[in-house]
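hey can u run this one w/ PMV bound, need the structure tokens asap thx
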Amino acid sequence: MKITTVSAPGKLILFGEHVVVYGYPAIVAAINRRMAVTVTDSLDMTDHIDTGIVLDQRFVKESLILFKKKYNINSYITLKTSSQFSDRVGFGSSAAITVATIYALATHFKKPMTKDVLFDLSYQVVIAIQKKGSGADIAASIWGGIVYFQKNTPVQKLDSTINEIIVGYTGIKASTTKLIDKVSTSYAYDPKTFEKIFISISKIVKQAKKEIVRSDENKLGELMSENHTLLKKLKVSTVKLDCLVKYACEFGAYGGKLSGAGGGDCMTAIAPEHAKKTVKSALSKSGATVYILTIETEGVRIEL
Ligand code: PMV
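ok here u go:
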């Protein structure tokens, strides 16, 4: 029996969350935690979906519906998912599972698909479910590595030797859509102030792009902390996230920031080699679940 397995990495937003929704750029890294989808032909006249620990089946189901409709597929499949990370930590599980599902179906049914088409289809699925979002997480899952992402602009992969990133998960699951709504409500109320903050963040993103290519971790840390201060002004940070960023810096990190929508989920920090252990233990002692993640250079791929 023909078996097709495709996997895609999760993501970590390094710079530019929220402003990316408004058309400004962001920098997103693919991480060494993947989601995989295995497709086989169904033995009866129905589709079977087994998402195991991926609690939210909507992304897989919507991807299947969209794919079958677009390519006029009348046969049935069995689809199983497996995951190297929980969908609670904010590592982009929805984007990764959507990308992996659509690409697995394209591979299984021999429909050649470019990365750009895969992006468009995945974005349609995410928007159908969440109604909002930039697609930055989808780009990281497809292209891998560190991507410079701006809506309606070709994705740029950044070359860098930056490899390890410290992540502290607060234990609090945040709702991305609620936080996007919160920023848009505040923006509507005070557009001048928010526009200024957006522009300041986008300047940081552009500077960070240069520092990533130079692989200057010290400068990147500083830029992360500056980005965090501005995210606080957007009112998406929390006391816990602020504390974790502060501790990371006090214990030797070059800098840090919340990563993603805020309101909980996780923060990230860059630290020199000699300080990594101390930063890690300071974050753990403050109640965070700590991950040392590496950048995943490969995006979506067929598993042999
Ligand atoms: O909360 P996360 O990890 O899904 O990140 C959301 C990032 C936003 O910029 C707030 C939204 C988006 O779609 O880019």
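Residues 3-161+297-303 form a domain with the Ribosomal Protein S5; domain 2 fold (CATH 3.30.230.10). anyway lmk if its weird
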